[in-house]
Amino acid sequence: MRFVAIFSMIQGHSVDVFLDFHLKMPHSVGFGSWLFFRGLTAPFFLFCSGFIYGLRFSRAETDDKFKQISIKTIKRAILLIFIGYLMKSPTSVHFI
Fold first, then answer.
1. Could you give the angle at the alpha carbon of 23 between the alpha carbons of 27 and 30, nearest 5°?
2. I want to staple 41 with a disulfide (CB 3.0 to 4.6 A). Which of 8, 21, 86, 90 is the partner?
3. DSSP letter for each residue of 20-81
4. Which pLDDT belongs to residue 95?
């Protein structure tokens, strides 16, 4: 389930970026359908993330295990936020 959510998010953003402007006709059946299902990917992704998050915490039998999972989750969130800001930061390096 998580794989489908992640794949849908990547596919939606990739097609949106790489699809030619002239092919983005919202009144066509194909693009309209894709646009509709793309709108469902973010809620599906958030649902899957929350479901997995709850599943992880339901397996914690003790308070120590709960703390370990919480710390690991917070560290992962900070790392992902840092990577996201790093990817969006302006740099003077031009890649070929």
1. 50
2. 8
3. -GGG--TTSHHHHHHHHHHHHHHHHHHHHHHHHHHHHHHT--SHHHHHHHHHHHHHHHHHHH
4. 58
Are the C-beta atoms of residues 43 and 5 closer than 8 Å to each other?
no
Confidence band, pLDDT 50/70/90 cuts, at residue 62: confident
Helix or strand (DSSP H, E) at 4: helix 2-18
Say if residues 31 and 24 touch (Cβ distance below 8 Å): yes
Domain assignments of the chain as residue spans, ordered by start? 2-88
Q: How far is 52 from 46, CA to CA, in rounded Å?
A: 10
Angle between helices 2-18 and 29-58 (to 10 degrees): 140
CA separation for the pair 45, 6 (Å, rounded): 7
Sign for the CA dihedral angle at 44, 47, 53, 54 comes to negative
